[in-house]
Structure formats: structure tokens, C-alpha cells
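Reply to dn_fold:

You asked what the input looked like. This is it:
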Amino acid sequence: MPIYEYYCADCRKRVSIFFRTFSEASDATARCPRCEGSHLRRLVSRVAVLKSEESRLDAMADPSFMAGLEHEDPRALAGFMRKMSDEMGEPLDAEMSEMVDRLERGESPEEIEKSMPELSAAPDGVGGGDDFETM
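and this is what came back:
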């Protein structure tokens, strides 16, 4: 049961038309469901691809996903962080979004960390900071 998209030259709208069979779609004269116009031009439909978590992780394992990180380029790091957010389907919160915006402008991670100490601070002194003893 195909659904085709058309541009209607009569009402100048993009419309979707459902056909019960493929043969009906090729033989029938399509009519606009909005204005009943017959001046339709078939369009290429948009496609959405759903990915499993496994395929998203496989995509992130591709070396090209991390291109530019070896040169310590802040813009490459920002791009990597945005790709990670997109691939995982989790939007950046306000602080991370600000940090990524600053990286895209070319600020170094060290400069950003100095001006945003709340990002490196962790509860109970775990992580962040230089509070580790050396052996």
C-alpha cells in the first residue's frame, strides 16, 4: 500500500496520496486531496532511518568519527561532542551547549575549564581537580 507525495500546482501544497495497490498508483490519475486539482508532480519522499543502539555504537567506532581530535583542535572536539549527542539521541544541557559553542569559536578546553569551574567539580571530591596523590 504505497503513499506517494506530490506537489499540487493548483493549490501550491505538498500532499500525500494513499493508494490501495501499486497498480492503482501507476494507473490512476492522482487528484489533490485538498483542492481536487489534477496538476500534480510526484516528489521524492523523505526517508527516516531508525538505528539500533548497536548500529549507533558501530558508527561511533569508525575512526573518521574522531577525525581531527589527534591535533587537539577545539573545533574538532566540539564537532565530536555534537556528533556524540546526536548519535546517542541525548541533547546537550545548557552548560555543555555553552562549552561546545565556545570550543567551536576556538577557545581552548583549559580556558573554558578555568572560567567554568562547576563543570570540572564533582561531588565528594571524586574526579576533577588535582587532588590525587602521586606514588
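Residues 124-135 have pLDDT under 50 and may be disordered.
Hope that clears it up.
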